[in-house]
């Protein structure tokens, strides 16, 4: 169906092409802008040059062997700065993919675009450690260590950039509707079994709803521009006095655009209400968790108090046991003394007799 809509404008005249209808489900789908990979390719060439410098450093800087480590560290620092600037460009490209409605692709690319800078940063830090600790290691020369680190750094960063270019190529050749429309239930789509579980994962769902809101905002902006363009065309046709009638019912197109705009506005309002409901649900869960934590703290305090009371009673019982033991020992000694006195008195009486 989408291919038929894309192929139908080729059979119309240039004048009619101005009023070709767009997809009702996603107006921006027919006008999706491909992601640019030229910057990524240039960065890959930069990595290749960096690898060539790392491999051929002894021959390129043969006349200045003493400052090769300093030059290699300087190249690594320069690559780190360039990669940091390039990362901002990649983040901008990923944001454009997100605004086009491809949330899943943007999530994949978001994790990849930060890896080259992290790789170069770790490599630079490792080179710094090698420069500092090399006098205590001495297995290889310092330039050899630095060249190995640079080469591994280029391999890792190049693999990440290859993954990014592959994903971007897949995105550019993709021929399906934006996945953000499939992730949530909305007024423009039939309900599914996920409708009852829409608040199961609050954080991720809120992010998806925000992506859907941004995409619908872009759709509304596009439709507003389309309505203005059609109004200008309508006014131009109304000013003509040659008696010719337009080949396209402009009023009908304007009404259709206005209806789409209202539908998108209604859907955006619904998604905003769902987002507020999800946030309220998350706040309720946070309040409940806080209440449970407070109750748990009270139980812990009560447990500590009972433990203290139990310890005090245990100490008292131990004191009583010690006192009882001492009393028993004193009684035994007293009984021994009484027995001795009795035996002594008995012996004295026998002597008298």
What would the keywords be for this entry?
2 domains; 353 residues; mainly alpha; single chain; flat; 11 helices; 77% helix; 0% strand
Strand proportion: under 5%
Q: Are there runs of 5+ residues with pLDDT below 50, and where? A: 1-25, 184-203
Percent helix = over 70%
Helical stretch tally: 11
How many strand elements?
0
How would you describe this structure to a colleague?
Its main location: membrane. It is found in: Membrane. One of its GO terms (cellular component) is lysosomal membrane. The chain has 353 residues and is an all-alpha fold. The protein has two domains: 22-179, no CATH class; 184-283. It is 77% helix and 0% strand. The chain is built from eleven helices and no strands. Helix 5 (68-99) runs antiparallel to helix 7 (115-137), helix 5 runs parallel beside helix 8 (142-172) and helix 7 (115-137) packs antiparallel against helix 8 (142-172).
Give the helix/strand layout.
Blueprint: H1 2-7, H2 14-17, H3 38-55, H4 57-60, H5 68-99, H6 103-112, H7 115-137, H8 142-172, H9 180-183, H10 202-239, H11 250-352
Helix pairs in contact: 3-5, 3-8, 5-6, 5-7, 5-8, 6-8, 7-8, 10-11
Short description:
The chain is mainly alpha-helical and 353 residues long. The chain is 77% helix and 0% strand. The longest helix is centred in the last third of the chain and has 103 residues, at 250-352.
């Amino acid at each position: 169906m989408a291919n038929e809509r894309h192929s139908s404008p080729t059979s119309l005249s240039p004048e009619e092409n101005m009023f070709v209808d767009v997809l009702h489900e996603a107006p921006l789908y027919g006008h999706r802008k491909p992601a640019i990979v030229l910057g990524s390719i240039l960065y890959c060439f930069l990595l290749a040059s960096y690898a060539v410098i790392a491999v051929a450093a002894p021959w390129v800087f043969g006349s200045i062997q003493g400052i090769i480590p300093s030059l290699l560290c300087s190249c690594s620092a320069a690559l780190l700065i360039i990669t940091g600037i390039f990362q901002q460009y990649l983040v901008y490209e990923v944001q454009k993919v997100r605004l086009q409605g491809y949330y899943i692709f943007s999530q994949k690319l978001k994790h990849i675009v930060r890896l080259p800078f992290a790789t170069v940063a770790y490599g630079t830090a490792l080179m710094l450690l090698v420069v500092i600790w090399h006098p205590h290691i001495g297995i290889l020369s310092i330039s050899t260590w630095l060249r190995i680190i640079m080469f591994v750094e280029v391999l890792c960063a190049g693999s990440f950039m290859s993954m990014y270019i592959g994903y971007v190529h897949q995105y550019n050749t993709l021929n399906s509707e934006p996945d953000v429309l499939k992730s949530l239930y909305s007024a423009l789509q039939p309900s599914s079994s996920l409708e009852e579980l829409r608040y199961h994962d609050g954080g991720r769902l809120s992010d998806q709803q925000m992506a859907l809101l941004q995409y619908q905002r872009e759709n509304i902006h596009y439709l507003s521009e389309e309505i203005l363009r059609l109004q200008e065309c309508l006014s131009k046709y109304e000013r003509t006095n040659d008696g010719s009638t337009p080949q396209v019912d402009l009023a009908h197109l304007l009404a259709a655009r206005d209806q789409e705009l209202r539908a998108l506005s209604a859907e955006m309002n619904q998604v905003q209400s769902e987002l507020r409901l999800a946030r309220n649900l998350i706040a309720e869960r946070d309040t409940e968790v806080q209440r449970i934590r407070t109750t748990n703290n009270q139980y812990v305090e009560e447990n500590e108090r009972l433990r203290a009371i139990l310890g005090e009673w245990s100490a008292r019982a131990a004191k009583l046991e010690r006192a009882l033991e001492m009393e028993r020992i004193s009684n035994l000694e007293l009984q021994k003394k009484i027995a001795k006195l009795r035996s002594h008195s008995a012996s004295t009486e026998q002597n008298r007799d």
